[in-house]
Design brief:
The complex is a heterodimer of chains A (about 290) and B (about 400).
Chain A lengths: L6 H29 L6 H18 L4 H22 L9 H22 L16 E3 L4 E3 H23 L1 H11 L1 H6 L4 H27 L5 H4 L1 H11 L4 H21 L6 H13 L11
Antiparallel strand pairs in A: 1-2
Helix pairs in contact in A: 1-5, 1-6, 1-8, 1-10, 1-11, 2-3, 2-4, 2-8, 3-8, 5-6, 10-11
Chain B lengths: L1 H18 L3 E8 L6 H17 L1 H4 L3 E8 L6 H12 L5 E4 L3 H14 L2 E4 L14 E3 L4 H14 L5 E6 L3 H16 L3 E7 L10 H9 L4 E5 L4 H12 L8 E5 L5 H7 L7 E4 L8 H14 L7 H19 L6 H8 L3 E4 L2 E5 L6 E13 L2 E13 L2 H4 L10
Parallel strand pairs in B: 1-2, 1-3, 3-4, 4-5, 6-7, 6-8, 8-9, 9-10
Antiparallel strand pairs in B: 10-13, 11-12, 12-13, 13-14
Classes of the chains: A mainly alpha (about 290), B alpha/beta (about 400).
């Protein structure tokens, strides 16, 4: 107990928030690291996935887990189409062009969702099993937060394994490190780009759906949390799964704790801390060597 | 040729203005897009519904609504919209204002334009002091907040309270209102937690975690109605605060009718103080709710914002009738001071001294009835004035 606040509930709350940040941001980190592409529309894909998940549950009556799968794959498919049609044309463009393009895409996404679904928040109907409290032995805590923490850990382990131990993962790492060399040894970089882009967007969709319970879901989502996703990627470093994971947990817990002790500061502190961290280590906290 | 053209235009213009002598132009500043669009729609529908089901009271005049979208709560857009309504559309009456900062920013323009301005939502207490042309048919944060502070001690027997509020003018108002009454009656506010801004719904978990650890008897929450309210109920239930013996109370924003059914069982037990909810049992409200459902669909419901628009239009029509269609702002204000009306929320009147509303506050508890969430009235206080101006608490006190 620190200053009257139970330490465990603080840690669990921050961890749950961090897991959502991780699931959404990991795709952004990989695509930015891999393609060097500044994709500000990443939050838009998270929003898109969240909407698909919430709306399919509402209108088709399918369960939470099937809806998550549908949302993840559908968003991945949509993003793959966009990648081939639009993004691919801008890979060699200047960063400013990429930023302008993706921010324009965000505005189109926001307006489309407002037009098609409406401006109001879409509540996520969490299945009964995930509602309420769970007894952990030493304390009771919000079941959904615990579910998020478990899900996040499973995802990071699966990603770490896929990234570090499979052939595809090795190809991605190789391309992040040195694209020309990767191309010259016969890695099909175009295909790899499309795949990772779709995968990153699918993960974002998953995060959008999982996080809707406490981040909410409305057309502004695409911009509202973008800053947090970018902070996580900046602090964690580009193209590193474990880096993004540690950064997301760090930012999630710090933000949660600061909001408890200094609620009047709003988001000021988290931005200040980010600036200090990046001044200290511009390449990201969890990147071993400067790239 | 040119002279003839000008002459014809002049005659035509004269003819049109004569034909429309009975037309009253009401300039409406509401959010029709963006995060506040659902609030704008509720107030808009309230105004339109009044004109539709009370057509006999409007005759022989024609009320034309000129609508401007003011989507940002920051104030700047509203100021521009109000200015354009006054100078370009030459409206006779101004109406609307969902967000307090917008009404605050509009006040100097309203004063300069010298047109009757009917506030249909914005609830920061001191707004009505900012221009002599403002009248308010919605509420002040102090109506519900102050009444709740008293009821929390007297009826709910609470000794300690934590207040969580959205950090913008009406939130601070609500905190001050509740705290003033709660502590005047012997209670103690043990913690005050600002919970982010009004522009977006934050994750409330950290703030509620802090509140839970303080173990108060009641947790008084003010957040803007709508999505914020839905998040409050969800987080309260998920963190097990009810099981911890903490009662969730607040103004009716947290049990807004349009969000209440979606909250489901989580809402049960919430206790609110407010001037309106759709379950109020009086003939005028039954007529209002029935007409609303007929007009906008059986699955829709009016709420306190809709009533703000409905009663606001009733006030405008009263002024138009009293002045026989010749709108003069000073005379309109005179006609409205002391105006009494039987609203869906019960009897209301406008305080001649402050141009703010006087109405009944209902203490309600959310219960389940016939498979839906029902707000049961468990107490009421009649003829409640804006306590901030009554008690002359700064910034409501007149400037000396």
């Amino acid at each position: 107990v620190i200053f009257g606040i139970d330490f465990a509930s603080m840690l669990l709350g921050g961890l749950a928030a961090g897991m959502v940040l991780f699931i959404v941001s990991v795709g952004l980190s990989i695509t930015m690291g891999l393609m060097g592409f500044v994709n500000l529309a990443h939050g838009g894909f998270a929003m898109l996935g969240g909407y698909i998940i919430v709306l399919t549950m509402k209108h088709w009556g399918i369960g939470f887990v099937p809806a998550l799968i549908v949302g993840c794959f559908l968003t991945a498919a949509v993003s793959a189409v966009l990648e081939r049609l639009l993004y691919a044309r801008l890979y060699r463009a200047a960063e400013l062009d990429q930023v302008l393009f993706t921010i324009g895409l965000v505005f189109i996404m926001i307006s489309s969702v407002t037009l098609l679904v409406g401006p109001e928040n879409q509540p996520l109907q969490v299945p009964a099993a995930l509602r309420g409290q769970t007894n952990l032995g030493f304390m009771e805590y919000r079941t959904y937060s615990l579910f998020l923490i478990v899900t996040g850990v499973v995802i990071v382990l699966a990603l770490w394994f896929g990234f570090e131990k499979t052939r595809l993962g090795a190809q991605i790492r190789a391309t992040v490190d040195n694209r020309r060399m990767a191309e010259s040894i016969g890695i099909n970089v175009d295909r790899l780009f499309a795949l990772t882009f779709a995968f990153g967007s699918g993960m974002a969709a998953l995060g959008g759906g999982l996080g809707a319970e406490f981040l909410g879901l409305d057309p502004q989502y695409a911009l509202k949390y973008l800053v947090y996703f970018l902070i996580v990627v900046a602090v964690g470093g580009l193209g590193r799964i474990t880096g993004v994971f540690y950064a997301a947990i760090l930012i999630g817990i710090l933000d949660f704790v600061l909001k408890i002790y200094l609620p009047q500061g709003g988001t000021l502190f988290i931005f200040a801390i980010t600036i200090l961290l990046l001044l200290w280590r511009p390449q990201g906290l969890f990147v071993k060597r400067p790239t | 040729m040119l002279k003839r053209l000008i002459a014809t235009t002049a005659v035509l213009a004269a003819a049109t203005s004569w034909a429309h002598a009975q037309e009253i132009k009401v300039g409406v500043a509401l959010p029709y897009t963006g995060i506040g669009a659902e609030f704008g729609q509720l107030i808009d529908r309230g105004m339109e519904l009044y004109l539709k089901i009370n057509a006999d009271k409007v005759k022989p005049y024609k009320i034309t609504l000129i609508k401007r979208d003011v989507k940002n709560p920051g104030g700047a857009d509203a100021k521009i919209a109000v200015q354009e309504l006054l100078t370009q559309d030459k409206v006779d009456v101004l109406a609307g204002w969902v967000y307090s900062p917008n009404a605050i920013a509009s006040a100097p323009i309203v004063s300069a334009g010298k047109k009757l301005a009917v506030i249909m939502n914005a609830g920061t207490a001191h707004i009505t002091n900012m221009s002599p042309y403002f009248v308010r048919t919605s509420f002040s944060m102090w109506h519900a907040g102050h009444a709740m502070g008293e009821a929390a001690v007297k009826q709910l027997k609470a000794k300690t309270a934590v207040v969580g509020y959205t950090d913008f003018p009406p939130g601070k108002d609500s905190l001050a209102a509740f705290k003033t009454a709660f502590e005047a009656n012997g209670g103690k506010v043990i913690d005050e937690i600002p919970m982010g801004g009004a522009g977006a719904v934050p994750d409330l978990t950290p703030f509620f975690t802090r509140a839970k650890e303080k173990k108060p008897d009641v947790f008084f929450v003010f957040v803007p109605a709508g999505d914020h309210a839905a998040a409050v109920v969800r987080t309260y239930a998920a963190l097990g605060m009810r099981e911890a013996g903490i009662k969730l109370i607040g103004p009716g924003d947290i049990t807004q009718d349009t969000k209440l059914q979606a909250m489901g069982k989580d809402a049960v037990g919430m206790i609110t103080m407010h001037h309106y909810h759709a379950d109020l049992d009086n003939p005028e409200n039954k007529r209002f709710v029935a007409a609303w459902k007929k007009e906008y669909g059986a699955d829709t419901t009016p709420d306190f914002m809709a009533v703000g628009g409905y009663d606001g239009m009733a006030a405008i029509v009263h002024a138009v009738q009293a002045l026989k269609g010749k709108m003069d702002s000073d005379k309109a204000l005179e006609a409205l001071k002391g105006w009494k009306y039987n609203s869906p929320r019960g009897p209301i009147s406008l305080d001649p001294a402050t141009r703010d509303i006087i109405m009944t506050e209902y203490l309600s508890e959310a219960t389940m009835k016939d498979g839906r969430v029902f707000q049961k009235v468990i107490g009421k206080i009649e003829n409640v004035k804006d306590a901030c101006k009554e008690l002359k608490i700064p910034p409501c006190a007149p400037k000396s």
